[in-house]
């Protein structure tokens, strides 16, 4: 039973950064913007969060720094694509490459340094309940924030007027502009929110998941978060389910190696990425499902009439 609980705990920890980053990207794409720079924003959030936490000794300041760094990095993308109307795909890929290189340079002095870890919650009387106590009442704070964030985004997109406006921009920015909606303003806010979420996900990696700085420690999670949005058909609750499925695959291959299963470790390490490819291929075969919720203006530049 202890082994099972430990595995479930590690799955939740592995799924949390995927969920936070994917929920942020879902809001961005619902506004009609395709930001492929999630990986770059995550790794910058990781190094910014670790650096601030290491220098101040406070993991909470580290998380705040991770959010700010992610938001600022996304602002660079927003200026390029929304104000200067550059190609969103090329700009997002460039943002990822910039983030990977810049984080490696900034984090050189942090390699091998002891980090500060965000402690798990401990609720007297509840955390000590067998099995359920540790799973529900003994997680790290970002686990609860990720669940609350998913519920909040679901409510915002489908229950508020502002969320309806954001979705209408993603479906037809020209029609929204004709109705007097400030398309660029909404998209700026959506992109910054997505960047803040990606930065927070990166902060989770360096302050909770592995409280230290390792170059390229995001290890492709930003790309998996992008795939999760498509996997979920742009629905928040499906992102939640998908994040835990991918988290289970990620942790499953680690435990398989630890148990000495006679399969090459390289193959086991590739399982999360293979699962991502398989899921995308299966989804692409169902064009009705793919087109049903896809924002019609996704990836299309918008230049308002002067």
Automatic annotation (TrEMBL):
Membrane-protein topology: Multi-pass membrane protein
Protein's organism: Mesorhizobium tamadayense
An example Gene Ontology CC term for this record: plasma membrane
Subcellular locations according to the entry: Cell membrane
Alphabetical UniProt keywords: Cell membrane, Membrane, Transmembrane, Transmembrane helix
TM spans (from-to): 6-28, 33-54, 60-82, 89-111, 141-158, 188-210, 216-234, 241-261, 267-283
Name of the molecule in the record: ABC transporter permease
A Pfam family it matches: BPD_transp_2
Single GO term (MF): transmembrane transporter activity
Annotated CDD domains: TM_PBP1_transp_TpRbsC_like
Domain of life: Bacteria
């Amino acid at each position: 039973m202890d082994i099972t609980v430990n595995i479930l705990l590690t799955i939740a920890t592995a799924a949390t950064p995927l969920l936070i980053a994917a929920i942020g990207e879902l809001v961005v794409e619902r506004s009609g913007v395709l930001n492929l720079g999630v990986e770059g924003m995550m790794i910058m959030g990781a190094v910014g969060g670790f650096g601030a936490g290491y220098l101040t000794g406070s993991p909470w300041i580290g998380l705040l720094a991770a959010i700010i760094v992610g938001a600022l990095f996304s602002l660079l993308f927003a200026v390029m694509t929304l104000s200067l109307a550059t190609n969103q795909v090329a700009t997002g890929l460039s943002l990822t490459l910039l983030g990977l290189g810049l984080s490696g340079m900034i984090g050189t002095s942090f390699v091998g340094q002891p980090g500060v870890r965000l402690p798990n919650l401990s609720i007297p009387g509840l955390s000590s309940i067998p099995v359920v106590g540790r799973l529900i009442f003994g997680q790290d704070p970002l686990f609860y924030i990720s669940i609350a964030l998913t519920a909040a985004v679901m409510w915002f997109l489908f229950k508020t007027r502002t969320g309806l406006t954001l979705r209408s921009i993603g479906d037809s920015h020209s029609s929204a502009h004709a109705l007097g909606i400030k398309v660029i303003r909404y998209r700026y806010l959506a992109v910054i929110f997505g960047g803040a979420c990606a930065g927070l996900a990166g902060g989770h990696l360096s302050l909770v998941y592995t409280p230290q700085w390792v170059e390229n420690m995001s290890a492709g999670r930003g790309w998996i978060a992008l795939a999760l949005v498509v996997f979920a058909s742009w629905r928040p609750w499906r992102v939640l389910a998908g994040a835990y499925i991918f988290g289970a695959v990620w942790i499953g291959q680690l435990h398989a190696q630890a148990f000495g299963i006679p399969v090459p470790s390289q193959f086991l390490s590739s399982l999360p990425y293979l699962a991502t490819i398989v899921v995308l291929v299966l989804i692409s075969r169902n064009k009705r499902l793919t087109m049903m919720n896809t924002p019609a203006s996704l990836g299309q530049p918008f230049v308002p009439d002067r």
